[in-house]
Design brief:
Elements lengths: L1 H17 L3 E2 L1 E6 L5 E6 L2 E6 L2 E7 L9 H9 L1 E5 L6 H6 L10 H5 L3 E2 L8 E2 L4 E11 L5 E12 L18 E4 L2 E4 L23
Antiparallel strand pairs: 1-11, 2-3, 2-6, 4-5, 5-10, 6-9, 7-8, 9-10, 11-12
Length: 207
Amino acid sequence: MRHRRRVRETTRRLLFGSVNPRPIAWTSTVSASGRRNLAPFSFFTVVSTSPPMVSITMERRDDGREKDSLLNIRSTGEFAVNVVTADMAARMCATSEEYTSEVDEFAVAGVAARPAHRISVPLVAAAPISMECELEQIIQPGGDTIVIGRIVLWHVDAALFDARRHVDVLRWQPMGRVGASFSPVEHLVELPPLAPVSGDDVPAAGR
């Protein structure tokens, strides 16, 4: 048992150190009785562009129980993803603690909320981007649980759009996880296109 625990923890550290950077889904939910919950998850990515879907992988609590975010999504079928900027990072970290189900993380971290339009879940008022999501699927391929949500409404600060109507990442500088730490996106690297390679230029071993 002790050996398995060490292997599991070593593997987890390898994943955290190797899969980087990771965007943060500051996820708001409500329980069936209406109690608010707010928690960050960094196993977060796009699943589909049409229809727009995102996924959040949720680990269990230290004692093996499912986290409140997952329990709430199971019971209501709704959640919201709020992005995190550098000036929101401290409050986001405060919501990552393992509180009891009765605790309102919005209140504990001093996070102002605003109502959503299509779902009953509150949004983080200061988030420059929020996504209202309805549950599409919950799957468990291993020890963790993957929640897939369909985005039914976007909230994007108009100041983030450039002249081409693209979201300019540098205008909001998202905070991400790097290993077990955090880092904002503060600059981008533009790579020149590669010159086309003809078949004659490809080494024989690569053909």
